[in-house]
């Protein structure tokens, strides 16, 4: 197989979209950017690089993904879903095309790609996040997305999946201020989701652990436990200052904030 189809989700991603699309040049000749109403140069950059640009504005990422799955007309049987801050390396491109060709007509309908996080200029190899794997390559019509407000995942409707070996990159070029703003929005969505359905079904192992174990722990304490786990059990400190900052922010600028918003919501109702 020479090429696969790709779609990329964007919203104010002018710092990332160029590198993302360049990483797809040997992999795809059918690239669609689904933009959520960017106010920067995201759309202009994408169009200048030959990508098709469509618009679908929503605050719920799972709704945008489902719209793509139901409405995009893919030119190829295999499809890649990518975020703007993710990159497919040349070695990964070769492996993906090889696997797609090998499993063109069998029951393998999805491929999990491994990603390496780059944070504050450091590749993070500890803290339990290396590599993190995502089901993002699939046969058209063979996946759906969890109907969640936050932390949604693709899942197969039939058949089975395999894992690729070559590492892909998660390299967000936005500032730490932008990172914090994004995760503040994520925490609001997570708060709303937990309030509505604290034991929502999840198709991933980590998601099931979060719903069946993490959210049964006492509020605020669980964020501290999460930080301890990342820092000392999974050795985040081995990644130096960036690893320490990443573990701290994930625990206290996201999960602790979720608990604070849940507490605020509960006591606002009581008042």
What labels describe this entry?
271 residues; Spore Coat Polysaccharide Biosynthesis Protein SpsA, Chain A; 8 helices; two-stranded antiparallel sheet; 10-stranded mixed beta sheet; 12 strands; globular; alpha/beta; 23% strand; 2 domains
Briefly say what this structure is.
By secondary structure, this protein is of the alpha/beta class. It is 41% helix and 23% strand. β9 and β10 (154-156) form a beta hairpin.
Radius of gyration using CA atoms only: 19 Å
- Briefly, what CATH class of the largest domain? Alpha Beta
Could you say what the CATH architecture of the largest domain is? Alpha-Beta Complex
Query: Number of folding domains?
Result: 2
**Count of extended strands:** 12
**Helical region count?**
8
Strand content: 15-25%
Q: Give the helix proportion (percent range).
A: 40-55%
Query: Could you spell the SSE succession in H and E letters?
Result: EHEHEHEEHEEEEEEEHHHH
Average pLDDT score: 94
Spans of 5+ residues with little confidence (pLDDT < 50)? none
Based on Cα principal axes, name the global outline. Answer: globular
* Biggest sheet details: 10 strands, mixed
* Main structural class: alpha/beta
Distance between the termini: 62 Å
Q: What name does the CATH topology of the largest domain carry?
A: Spore Coat Polysaccharide Biosynthesis Protein SpsA, Chain A
Per CATH, the superfamily of the largest domain is Spore Coat Polysaccharide Biosynthesis Protein SpsA, Chain A
């Amino acid at each position: 197989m020479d090429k696969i189809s790709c779609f990329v989700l964007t919203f104010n991603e002018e710092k990332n979209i160029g590198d993302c699309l360049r990483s797809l040049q040997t992999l795809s000749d059918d690239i669609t950017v689904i933009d959520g109403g960017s106010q920067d140069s995201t759309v202009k950059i994408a169009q200048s690089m030959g990508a098709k640009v469509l618009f679908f504005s929503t605050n719920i990422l799972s709704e945008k993904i489902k719209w793509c799955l139901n409405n995009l007309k893919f030119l190829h049987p295999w499809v890649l879903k990518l975020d703007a801050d993710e990159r497919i390396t040349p070695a990964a491109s070769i492996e993906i095309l090889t696997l797609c060709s090998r499993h063109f007509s069998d029951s393998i309908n999805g491929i999990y790609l491994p990603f390496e996080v780059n944070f504050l200029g450091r590749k993070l190899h500890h803290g339990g996040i290396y590599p993190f794997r995502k089901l993002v390559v699939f046969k058209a019509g063979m996946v759906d997305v969890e109907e969640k407000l936050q932390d949604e995942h693709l899942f197969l409707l039939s058949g089975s999946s395999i894992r690729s070996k070559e590492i892909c990159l998660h390299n967000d070029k936005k500032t730490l201020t932008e990172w914090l703003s994004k995760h503040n929005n994520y925490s609001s969505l997570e708060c709303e989701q937990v309030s509505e359905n604290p034991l929502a079904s999840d198709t991933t192992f980590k998601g099931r652990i979060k719903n069946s174990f993490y959210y049964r722990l006492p509020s605020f304490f669980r964020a501290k436990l999460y930080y301890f786990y990342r820092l000392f059990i999974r050795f985040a400190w081995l990644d130096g200052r960036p690893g320490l900052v990443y573990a701290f922010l994930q625990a206290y600028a996201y999960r602790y904030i979720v608990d604070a918003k849940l507490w605020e919501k509960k006591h606002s109702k009581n008042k």
